[in-house]
Design brief:
It comes from Fulvitalea axinellae. By secondary structure, this protein is of the alpha+beta class. The protein has 7 helices and 7 strands, in the order αβββββββαααααα. The protein has a 4-stranded antiparallel β-sheet, with no helix packed on it. A 3-stranded mixed β-sheet has the order 4-1-7, with no helix packed on it. The longest helix has 35 residues. It is elongated.
Length: 276
């Protein structure tokens, strides 16, 4: 019994080492895990190229491992990367920047200074038309010809009444006419207010989620792929209006990983079908 127990205790370190080695063969995404001895700790500062001010909350993504973080309030960051990995720095309104370690890598620590450049957008010509003043709108409503619902087309050979004209009160009093006009005015105001609200929401959504912003955050250069990814995100207008830009950016990075993983799966499936 003592010999069996001694043999088990002697083999336990070997089993632990072998299981640890197997666990490190692949990471969560199925990629080969890199040992700490082959990684380099990169620390640095991200600044604005216009005024050299530190930039907080810049996204730093390891393109190979699909892992990332953001810069601190003072623009500092720290990431682990292999000598062949690429770090992608992105921020709304700035050009994405790709960083690789200078080769050959001779030490396990590296200090980097990242300078972000603003993106300039070429906007289309915007035509601004004035709204109709309320007094002019009232006058148009007053002058509008309203068809008499009781008026019927006369048929030749048919005698209609005595031929006397009806009084104005027969078609409604002046008070009812004024009430009708102001009721129509209220409806016009409601439609105008709704149109203004929809336009303001459109401006808010466009400032957070449009083709150019998505292309910068994802690095996609093909416009069709950008549009396909935006459809894949399936954001509602209510979500885009109420959610802050930072939370949308974080969610976009997550959806980008899922979108690309699905693309890889579709390519593998298509390749297997073609091979059959």
């Amino acid at each position: 019994m003592k010999k069996i127990l001694f043999s088990v205790l002697a083999m336990l370190p070997v089993l632990l080492l072998s299981s640890r080695g197997m666990a490190q063969e692949q990471d969560f995404f199925g990629e080969p895990e890199q040992s700490d001895s082959t990684r380099v700790i990169v620390t640095g500062l991200v600044i604005n190229g216009l005024n050299n001010a530190p930039m907080p909350y810049v996204h730093v993504i390891n393109e190979h491992l699909k892992q990332g973080s953001t810069t601190a309030d003072d623009g500092l960051f720290m990431m682990r990367m292999a000598p062949t990995d690429t770090l992608v720095f992105s921020f709304v309104g700035y050009k994405p920047l790709r960083f690789t370690l200078p080769q050959p890598v001779e030490r396990d620590r590296y200090v980097a200074k990242i300078v972000m450049e603003e993106t300039s957008y070429e906007l289309q010509t915007l035509i601004i038309r004035p709204f109709i003043p309320i007094e002019d709108l009232k006058q148009q409503i007053i002058n509008e010809k309203v068809e008499d619902p009781d008026k019927k087309e006369k048929v030749a050979g048919v005698k209609y009444g005595s031929g006397k004209k009806k009084s104005a009160m027969a078609y409604g009093s002046p008070i009812s006419a004024i009430a009708y006009l102001f009721s129509k005015e209220r409806k016009m105001k409601k439609k105008l207010a709704k149109a203004e609200e929809e336009y303001e929401n459109f401006k808010i959504i466009d400032a957070k989620f449009n083709e150019k912003i998505v292309a910068e955050l994802t690095g996609y250069t093909d416009n069709d792929r950008v549009l396909e990814f935006m459809r894949f995100c399936n954001y509602s207008n209510d979500y885009l209006v109420k959610t802050v830009a930072y939370d949308i950016i974080v969610d976009l990075q997550y959806k980008k990983e899922v979108f690309e993983a699905m693309e890889k799966t579709e390519k593998v499936t298509t390749g297997q079908e073609d091979g059959q």
